[in-house]
Amino acid sequence: MKILIADDSRAMRTLVMHILRQLGYRGHTMIEAADGAAALAAVREQSPDVVISDWNMPNMTGIECLQALRADGNQVPFGFVTTEASAQMRALARDAGAAFLIAKPFTPDDFQAALDRYLA
Questions:
Q1: Contact, 13 vs 87, CB < 8 A?
Q2: How many secondary structure helices (H) and strands (E) does the chain include?
Q3: In this predicted model, what pLDDT tens digit does every residue of 44-79 receive, in sequence order?
Q4: Domains of the chain by residue range
């Protein structure tokens, strides 16, 4: 299985990959994207099984990436790891078709609860 991790912070992408491996998702291919535009291209080219994205990124935000994918008819499970965790942001993510939203700061258990249904 393929997991796309989109975040403009290299350190955050590395941390998310570390947590995923710690949770036992070692056999999965990890794909990285440094912004929403790169994430959109990676989804179109590599067909990941799940996308984990930051909300605020340069060139294209995570929510814009999700909206573009849904407009294309792509239903890949797409979730956010973000500090944007207000009720309004959660509603916006849900309405756009997000599968989950993990708020920073997070724990490995937050990832496991969000991802097990897609990666188990």
A1: no
A2: 5, 5
A3: 999 999 999 999 999 999 999 999 999 999 999 999
A4: 2-119
Q: Which residue has the tokens 């490995």?
A: 108
How many whole angstroms separate alpha carbon 95 and alpha carbon 82?
17
2 phi and psi, to 5 degrees?
Answer: -115, 135
What is 2-119's CATH number, 1.10.10.10, 3.40.50.2300, 3.30.930.10, 1.10.3380.30?
3.40.50.2300
Going by the DSSP 8-state scheme, the letter that residue 74 receives in this structure is -
pTM for the model = 0.95
pLDDT of residue 119: 83
